[in-house]
Structure of Adenosylmethionine-8-amino-7-oxononanoate aminotransferase:
Amino acid sequence: MPTDYQNTSTEQWLQWDKDHIWHPYSSVLNPPAMVPVVSAKGVKLTLADGSELIDGMSSWWSAIHGYNHPALNAAAKAQLDDMSHVMFGGLTHPAAASLGKRLVDITPAPLTRVFISDSGSVAVEVAIKMALQYWHSIGQPNKTRLLALRNGYHGDTFGAMATCDPVTGMHHLFNKVLPEHLFAEAPKTAFGESATEADLANITSLLKNHHQELAAVILEPVVQGAGGMRFYGGDYLKQLRALCDDYDVLLIHDEIATGFGRSGKLFACEHAGISPDIMCVGKALTGGYLSLAATLCSEKIAHGICEGEAGVFMHGPTFMGNPLACSIANASIDLLLASDWQGNIQRIEAGLKTGLAAAAELNSVEAVRCLGAIGVIEMKTPVNMASLQARFIDRGIWIRPFGKLVYTMPPYIISNADLALLCQQMVAALAAEE
């Protein structure tokens, strides 16, 4: 008799999960206990036992409108009645065309071409390939290396991983296959401050000495996410834009985590008033409903590639331009832009600053910093994630720390009361660990 997969106890499917599923950054030899989620609505995750958690992570920063949003549900259901998928090679459809136009309209000029892909890591792979193929196409095939920032994170696929911080990304495990790129020291000046000569000295030197082999600089503008949750000033980006122009090196912005309002601007590069040559977006693009990303570039890049030897851009994912995901992305962008999103992000930032301030008084805390809808508590030593996460769950919140960092990126729809409770319980759980 076949197994009745639909009607099993929580204990049974948790055991299947433990026996067969390999979760991110986990060991199958000593797998961490999984928290069983059965539904989600608004900012709450409902567990199998009926208890609820306030989600402080927005499902890795993607569910900006919360869960089960009626507008996004309606967009998904309407698209399902037409088609859930169709190949993008030789075919197109209204959802993708509309999404491309929307992204061009809301991102800074001169980004006019949109390549739609499956995930953030793939969007970064596409950006890297665009930069390399561009230089090859215009007769400079020697420009094949990238320059990235230390403490950066750009994804887990090989091309993207090669541009992540080489220490935290454990490049030595894959050093025989990873391309060797260059890494500049991350800027140390705080958000809102002008870049210092010391901040710019290292990256300027690397550009001066290696520009003939450098295809592009790649970085996360203003907010370094999974590599350290660090904030730095927009002036650094402005200065770097000028340096890239001076040394004839492309500039790639990875806005996968920062795009769609998270930093207080629609896109983080707006803090500097500049535009990259290539930009990656993802995560919040569909409001956390489906995996979708996009890589935007200028006409200069697009024409340079297509006028070269290949005549085409050499990439084409099977699920590129998926109609279901594109339809939800259009609805998510509409939902965001129709709201007072700037005022809302300011409200969340104020709530985070107030709610997390008490953490600075704990002996175990190194620093507390907030920007937009991002709140970070940096500890002096790495946390015990298993025990700390259990404390968070006992207190009715979902926070997933890593290393020394205990942070939150809540959904934009979070109420003041839930935000205050989230912050209060974060601080209380840390205090209980001392």
User: Anything to note?
Assistant: The CA atoms of residues 183 and 422 lie 36 Å apart. The domain at 73-338 is CATH 3.40.640.10 (Aspartate Aminotransferase; domain 2). The first helix runs from residue 10 to 20.
